[in-house]
TrEMBL record, chain A:
InterPro entries: AAA+_ATPase, ABC_transporter-like_ATP-bd, ABC_transporter-like_CS, ABC_transpr_LolD-like, MacB-like_ATP-bd, P-loop_NTPase. Gene3D superfamilies: P-loop containing nucleotide triphosphate hydrolases (3.40.50.300). This is ABC transporter ATP-binding protein. Residues 3-223 form the ABC transporter domain. Keywords: ATP-binding, Cell inner membrane, Cell membrane, Membrane, Nucleotide-binding, Transport. Coiled coil: none annotated. One of its GO terms (cellular component) is membrane protein complex. It comes from the Bacteria.
TrEMBL record, chain B:
Its main location: membrane. This is FtsX-like permease family protein. Keywords: Cell membrane, Membrane, Transmembrane, Transmembrane helix. It holds the Pfam family FtsX. It is a multi-pass membrane protein. InterPro entries: ABC3_permease_C, MacB_PCD, Membrane_comp_ABC_pdt. It is found in: Cell membrane.
Length: 223, 805
């Protein structure tokens, strides 16, 4: 099992002091290598929160996350940083890129951090995503769709076991979104990575092998 | 409408308290540095005057008894009645129970000149002083005399820092009683500003002899140059502060543009808007300037030894041991604050005034400077530096204004060149192959430059000012001590004029002195310039102590042989003379220049001839002053006083004078060191404020890197490293700029203003220390923002990626 989540809870400080808002209440799930999972739920239901916890970007209150046999919930800052570098690839809805680096450097950044630098792979991914002509542009010179493609290329370039995507096409128009989505799914299956993707689009969700719905802090099977 | 607009404008400050703080504190610090330097300058000058006056050295003409003895006090009354502004002095020795004798100086506080110790001093307890109950002495002597020994007949001695060492100051009546000289005075001092038509002196007091103000080398004349240089650096410190103000004002104006647009759309006239913003800024400037003057006063008082800031001092009351806050400082401090704010705001206000009411509200991003702007800065900076180089190479002798143009071009050019220089250096560094973090670090640093530009410029100016001050002060100290060694090398300086029998005195000195240096002088016009021609005896004293600016040691031999002359720097510059050039000393007397000698502080030219040649050329000019080397100066001095009827004022103890001058300069030097620290602190403050302003803008730049696998602590460490790196690179450029500024001041401005050049010495260890201090200042400034970054909850970083950003 690549990812195993048991009884995960997370709360945020609420508007009133000492009255935290409980976002996740005992979430459990498991995900095998090569599987793709769609996570749906209303806005504010805690999808992003769950994703952040799995990626080692934030701390859970209780419960366990086992990723690749290691317990993320017991890692310190350094361990989490190593996890983000080497094991997962994260794609956010927007502002994924490092503004001071050009496209090529952005794509290669995580792979180099993880010690898996591979310039040929950077070129290949960029080509596959139609970024070949933009390698020396800076993020601010790209359209939203192009920026998300760079983020996808970067996540894949590092060869992570698990790709975590948080509404990666949420900011794009419908046609572009569909195209980017298709490219992401094709590359993920090509690489054999697992994918956990947050989306509120039914159409997108149906393209993935499994679906789970987050409601009132708990997971239920998708429709 | 006006109140509504005002409250809308003020709302901005309420929402951005940090910006308001930056503006007020920046301006206050700038003003504080400026007025602090003014205060220190004034205090140094004053304490020098006071100490010099209490030594009895003459900036003043004196009246002495022709017979060398005491003068009847009635003479004083007669002279005053006749309209002569004179003040009596009583001088003698008292010997406490144990230890060396002390000099007792009695003055008449009500008629004594303002510069003399008495005037400022005795006000502490004027009644007690006038009644003779209170005496004053420098702190060390005062300690020695507490409790008062029997010779003081029950009088108390209070410490007064401005007094010359080993001198006890008393009211004239008390001094007469202590010395057993009731009704008698030692000499009368002629005040400089006399009414026009009094009867001639020989009519009222034929038994008195007028002795001209001391012609001995006067270290006080050097201070003019020192204070000019210090003031220049004070202005530089002020500019450091202005950079903070400029940044804060610019940011505030930029952020209020949408508001201005809205107000205009609502019908507020542009003129009223701009006027109100200007009034708002002026109010802030007055507030901050006032704060700054007070701060500068407190800082100066804290730095200056032996003076204190007191409430009474704030009103300008002259109180012993108190720094007086003068009206001039208030005016100049507030004036600088107002002018500085106006300067910093004018660009921003002008842009607002020209803004069409319906222009797009987006505006340009403040923090993003275009490559074109960087190029423009580089071009302008290089142009100004080229202008500076041109003036340095070809414009010397072009007058004071050219010197100041050189300074300004150097300063502005150096500042403008900094951001392009940093950008270029980072770009070059990026060419090298390196790890992903280093690569990102450099790229990101490059991206921070526009936002940090002003703070870095301030840091560079602060560093340059520090390097300049350190160079100037240390060069001054070396030159000054060397020059004092040279000019005050003889033990005693004897004014022979009051002596009854000049010839007998000279014969006595020839016999008793280890080396006698008769001072022969006559006024003349040389090469079309007023000059003094000196005749000197080229003995070991001169040969050992005089250092030439040009020309070799053999100059003395040719001088003694009457085959050459030595000229001072002032004459050499005016008449364009170098060793080997022929100089027409008099019609018919043409000699080559053997050497040029530094003559710091002297306004006039000098030609030095060998003694024999001088006596042959000017047979009527007899020596009236002697410098004397003696194995036992005290015995010789006593003999001169006892056997040759010389008054004590006619003999100057050179060592004492030298020690005094050095002590006072050391105090000022020490204070400038503390000023350096302050300037750097202000630059650090500018850096801190810039970093805090940037902190919010930084998150979108840092969050992706963090998400990809760097810890927050690692990122915070890199932020510190960045500050240190930028400071180090800035220091690299600040060093030559500081040296250039020092050079321009010492070698160009000083020459234009005073006619002589202050030799410049380099102090690499000091510069290394200053560079380190700048990096520490930058590091400290970055510490808090970095700490905040390290401690930020991850959720805040994650917000960057969230929809609702
Ligand atoms: N840093 C935070 N502090 C307080 N509340 C938060 C924070 N982040 C998220 N929340 C709250 O937690 C809930 C879940 O947020 P999120 O996981 O972003 O939901 P989703 O991604 O499903 O829209 C929301 O109610 C949101 O307001
Ligand atoms: Mg979300």
């Amino acid at each position: 099992m690549l990812l195993e989540i048991r009884d995960l809870s997370k709360s945020y400080p609420g508007p009133e002091p000492d009255r935290p808002v409980q976002v996740l209440r005992g979430v459990s799930l498991s995900l095998d290598a090569g599987q793709t999972l769609a996570l749906t739920g209303e806005s504010g239901s805690g999808k992003s929160t769950l994703l952040h916890l799995v990626a080692g970007l934030d701390h859970a209150d209780a419960g366990q996350i086992l990723l690749d046999g290691r317990e993320v919930t017991r890692m310190d800052d350094t361990g989490r940083a190593a996890l983000r570098r080497g094991t997962v690839g994260v794609i956010f809805q927007q502002f994924n890129l490092i503004p001071s680096l050009d496209v090529a450097a952005n794509i290669g950044f995580q792979a180099r951090l993880a010690g898996r630098a591979d310039p040929a792979r950077v070129l290949a991914l960029a080509g596959a995503l139609g970024l070949g002509a933009h390698l020396h542009k800076y993020p601010e010179q790209l359209s939203g769709g192009q920026q998300q493609r760079v983020a996808i290329a970067r996540a894949l370039a590092a060869r992570p076991r698990l790709i975590l995507a948080d509404e990666p096409t949420g900011n794009l128009d419908e046609a572009t979104a569909a195209e980017v989505m298709a490219q992401l799914l094709a590359l993920v299956s090509e690489e054999g990575a697992a994918l956990m993707m947050v989306t509120h689009s039914e159409r997108m969700a149906t393209q993935l092998s499994r679906r789970l719905h987050l409601r009132q802090g708990q997971l239920e099977p998708g429709p | 409408m006006t109140p509504a607009i005002l409250s809308a404008l003020a709302a901005h400050w309420r929402r951005n308290p940090l910006q308001f703080l930056t503006l007020v504190l920046g301006l206050a610090f700038a003003t504080a540095l400026w007025s602090g330097v003014q205060a220190i300058n004034a205090e140094a000058r004053q304490s020098y005057d006071r100490a010099a006056a209490s030594l009895g050295e003459g900036q003043f003409d004196l009246l002495l008894a022709r017979d060398g003895g005491w003068i009847n006090a009635a003479r004083f009354v007669a002279l005053r009645r006749a309209g002569w502004l004179v003040t009596p002095l009583v001088e003698g020795q008292i010997t406490p129970d144990a230890g060396a004798p002390l000099r007792l100086l009695g003055i008449e506080p009500l008629t004594a000149p303002a510069g003399m110790a008495a005037a400022g001093v005795a006000r502490t307890d004027l009644a007690g002083f006038l009644a003779g109950r209170v005496l004053l002495a420098d702190p060390e002597t005062a300690r020695r005399l507490t409790p008062p020994p029997a010779v003081l007949q029950g009088r108390q001695v209070r410490a007064e820092a401005g007094l010359a060492p080993g001198t006890v100051l008393a009211d004239i009546g008390a001094a007469q009683r202590l010395l057993g000289r009731e009704g008698q005075v030692s000499r009368l001092l002629i005040l400089p500003d006399q009414p026009q038509n009094q009867p001639a002196l020989d009519q009222i007091a034929p038994d008195l002899l007028r002795q001209g103000a001391e012609a001995a080398p006067d270290p006080a004349r050097l201070t003019g140059s020192f204070h000019l240089n210090l003031t220049a650096f004070g202005a530089l410190s002020f500019i450091v502060g202005l950079f903070i103000v400029h940044g804060a004002v610019g940011l505030a104006m930029e952020q209020r543009r949408p508001l201005v647009r809205t107000l205009r759309a609502l019908g507020a006239p542009l003129r009223l808007l701009v006027g109100l913003m200007l009034a708002e800024l002026l109010a802030i400037a007055l507030l901050a300037g006032g704060l700054g003057v007070l701060l500068g006063y407190v800082v100066a008082a804290a730095l200056l030894p032996d003076v204190a800031a007191t409430i009474r001092g704030l009103y300008g009351a002259s109180v012993s041991g108190t720094l007086e806050l003068r009206a001039v400082w208030w005016l100049s401090g507030l004036g600088m604050a107002l002018a500085g704010t106006a300067l910093a705001a004018s660009g921003a206000l002008w842009r607002i005034a020209r803004m069409p009411p319906l222009a797009s509200a987006g505006g340009r991003a403040w923090a993003v400077a275009s490559a074109r702007r960087t190029l423009g800065m580089a071009g302008a900076g290089l142009g100004l530096l080229a202008l500076a180089a041109g003036i340095a190479a070809f414009g010397q002798g072009g007058g004071l204004w050219l010197g100041f143009t050189l300074l300004a071009a150097l300063l502005l050019g150096g500042v403008l060149i900094l951001p392009p220089f940093l950008a270029l250096a980072l770009t070059l560094a990026q060419r090298r192959r390196m790890g992903p973090v280093a690569e990102w670090f450099l790229a990101d640093t490059r991206q921070q430059l526009p936002g940090l530009g002003l703070a870095l410029m301030a840091l560079m100016l602060a560093m340059a000012a520090n390097v300049g001050v350190a160079t100037m002060v240390s060069s001054f100290r070396l030159t000054f001590t060397g020059f004092l060694d040279q000019r005050l090398s003889a033990a005693l300086y004897v004014n022979a004029e009051p002596a009854g029998d000049l010839r007998a005195l000279e014969a006595f000195l020839e016999a008793e002195a280890r080396e006698l240096l008769p001072i022969l002088v006559t006024e003349a016009s040389v090469a079309g310039w007023p000059a003094q021609i000196y005749g000197v005896r080229g003995g070991p004293t001169y040969r050992q102590n005089w250092h030439f600016l040009a020309g070799g040691a053999e100059a003395w031999d040719t001088l003694v042989a009457g085959r050459a002359v030595i000229v001072n720097e002032q004459l050499a510059r005016r008449a364009d003379l170098a060793p080997g050039d022929a100089l027409t000393v008099l019609p018919g007397l043409v000699l080559p220049v053997a050497a040029v000698v530094g003559d710091y502080g002297n306004p006039v030219g000098q030609v030095i001839l060998g003694e024999d040649l001088f006596r042959a050329t000017f047979p009527e000019a007899a020596p009236r002053r002697f410098a004397v080397q003696a194995d036992d100066p005290d015995t010789l001095r006593r003999a001169l006083l006892r056997d040759h009827g010389l008054p004590t004022a006619a003999i100057t103890d050179q060592a004492e004078q030298k020690a005094l001058a050095l002590a006072i300069f050391e105090r000022t030097f020490a204070v400038t060191g503390a000023l350096n620290v302050l300037t750097l602190a202000v630059a650090g403050f500018a850096m801190l404020m810039s970093l805090l302003t940037l902190a919010a803008l930084r998150l979108p730049q840092l969050a992706p890197v963090w998400a990809l696998g760097l810890t927050q602590r690692h990122l915070a460490g890199l932020e510190l490293l960045r500050a240190g790196l930028l400071a180090a690179m800035t220091a690299l450029l600040a060093l030559p700029l500081g040296l250039g500024l020092a050079w321009a001041l010492l070698s160009v401005v000083n020459v234009e203003a005073f006619g002589w050049r202050l030799p410049m010495f380099l102090f690499p260890a000091d510069y290394a220390r200053l560079g380190l201090a700048a990096m520490v200042a930058a590091g400290l400034a970055a510490l808090w923002p970095a700490w905040r970054l390290a401690r930020r909850p991850p959720a805040e970083l994650l917000k960057v990626f969230a929809n609702e950003r």
